[in-house]
Write a structure and sequence with these properties.
Chain lengths: ~80, ~230
């Protein structure tokens, strides 16, 4: 089973990297791109025999405690291969 | 007063801190290995600058889980003196000993130069020998020093006089130009409510002798001995 965890900066938190990527896209002609927010992506490999509920608890806890700094970041995740 | 300087894999200002405390001020100092769980009777714990664990994941995020951090957190909560410099400040934030978080510098550059910071009238023993409003000339060297906290937290820091240093110009004035990394409230250093835990991005340990270009950082260490 694989968990895909997406970490993004909270709304309202300045994202200088996203802004720079946005400007670069604009200068290359991608005028319709209105905003870029940069984030992080993690894949966690879990045992297949784990229940969906247990897997969710585990990923939720790991994301909150380690993968994310909840002062500035939010996360969401999906489980694959259930 | 015995200082314990924590050494994480990737720390690179540990010897500077040790040198200032031991050789410039003549006080006992020991290195504390990150895998140990003993502060060896230290009266002051210094989390030094550097790139602990290569800054992987987030600055300070992995160091926070080092075995040594368990007694450091307990020591801090018990009122013990803890000083986090640069990467040490980032570790204190990740460990939740100080509020807020670090973002990348607004200009996305690693900044390595001397800046001016103003000592604020904060309630902490670390600046006992600084006049409120005194301007210090200290080096910074970081990529993630853009201090962030939500509005409520910032208001709380101000209300409880927890802002210890702010970036300023040579005359002590605050301006966007004198804020090198975009920090909220021009914040360069904060302490906890009790004042025994200080985190700061500038490096006082690299400004402890005139031959280094500035000895302005020495006052901070001297304050603890006063």
């Amino acid at each position: 089973m694989r968990a895909k965890v997406y970490v993004t900066l909270k709304k309202g938190v300045l994202d200088p990297q996203g802004k720079t990527v946005h400007r670069a896209l604009h200068s290359l002609g991608y005028r319709d791109v209105q905003e870029v927010r940069q984030g992080k992506y993690f894949e966690l490999l879990l045992p297949d025999n784990l229940s969906a509920e247990r897997a969710r608890q585990l990923v939720e806890s790991a994301a909150r405690e380690v993968l994310t700094n909840t002062v500035i970041e939010d996360f969401r995740f999906e489980l694959e291969g259930l | 007063m015995k200082a314990g300087v924590v050494v994480f894999p990737g720390s690179n200002c540990d010897h500077d801190a040790y040198h200032v405390w031991k050789h410039v001020l003549g006080q006992p100092a020991v290195f504390l290995w990150h895998k140990d769980e003993d502060l060896q009777g230290s009266d002051l714990v210094i989390l030094p600058g550097g790139f602990s664990y290569g800054d992987y994941l987030r600055t300070g995020a992995i160091a926070r889980f080092s075995p040594i951090m368990k007694p450091v957190v307990a020591f801090a909560k018990d009122g013990g003196l803890v000083l986090g410099i640069c990467n040490g400040f980032q570790i204190l934030l990740e460990a939740g000993l100080l509020p807020g978080a670090m973002l990348k510098n607004t200009k996305l550059k690693f900044i390595c130069r001397h800046v001016h910071v103003r000592a604020e009238p904060a309630a902490t023993p670390f600046t006992r020998q600084c006049r409120p409003g005194q301007v210090l000339h200290l080096p910074i060297a970081h990529h993630d020093g853009n201090y962030y906290a939500d509005k409520a937290t910032l208001a709380e820091l101000e209300a409880h006089r927890q802002v210890v240093f702010r970036y300023c110009d040579a005359a002590g004035k605050l301006s966007p130009e004198a804020n090198p990394n975009g920090s909220a409230g021009h914040i360069a250093g904060i302490c906890n409510r009790e004042g025994n835990v200080l985190g700061m991005m500038p490096h006082p340990e690299r400004a402890g002798e005139a031959i280094l270009g500035s000895a302005d950082g020495l006052g901070l260490f001297r304050s603890l001995l006063a």
